[in-house]
């Protein structure tokens, strides 16, 4: 069973089972819920073979492309932070197998070629935080999003950068990020983000600016800002994962 199904099944089952199954407790089969579909023998012992077969039938098609969400933002923008922490990251946590996230920290910043620097809407602290996040994206790969979410959900984005990196990407030394922000690499990464932002069609007029599969419309952005989870589920062209279809909720009830 893929990681998404195991994670969602385990988390939702623990919460839903407490509420819905109090009056009809099921004797323990000796295995925790996260293991019930690990093998046919365990499924039979726990009397859930039918439900496990339904889950296995819902495995994702690797040929179908993921839904691609690109966020053009700036690190100290309150609206950007709200969308990233309240919509984008939670949705990615549940649907990372069917979605791809691109983060482009730059927003309304401007390049200042004559000074070989950048000017940011919320001042120098934002320029620094933008560059830190660009360097984290470059150095940390798969661990970058949790680091950035940690930063953006904290009270102080810049001060939380080092502890967030140590917590979610301990394989990256803070000195590596500092070196990136002070050197040519950080400047080059920010220039690339400037080019990507300036190449948007239509041109961005605000932040956060959200594109879906490379496309921007105000309607898509409104849906993303309010119910991104539902939007990603609806746009995915393959077999919907159980967390999208509601099959998981039905499955949880069947264990009562």
From TrEMBL:
One of its GO terms (molecular function) is oxidoreductase activity, acting on a sulfur group of donors, disulfide as acceptor. PROSITE patterns: SAP_A. One of its GO terms (cellular component) is extracellular region. It comes from the Eukaryota. PANTHER family: GAMMA-INTERFERON INDUCIBLE LYSOSOMAL THIOL REDUCTASE GILT, GAMMA-INTERFERON-INDUCIBLE LYSOSOMAL THIOL REDUCTASE-LIKE. It comes from Danio rerio (Zebrafish). InterPro entries: Interferon-induced_GILT, SAP_A. Coiled coil: none annotated. This is Gamma-interferon-inducible lysosomal thiol reductase. Pfam families: GILT, SapA. GO terms for biological process: immune system process.
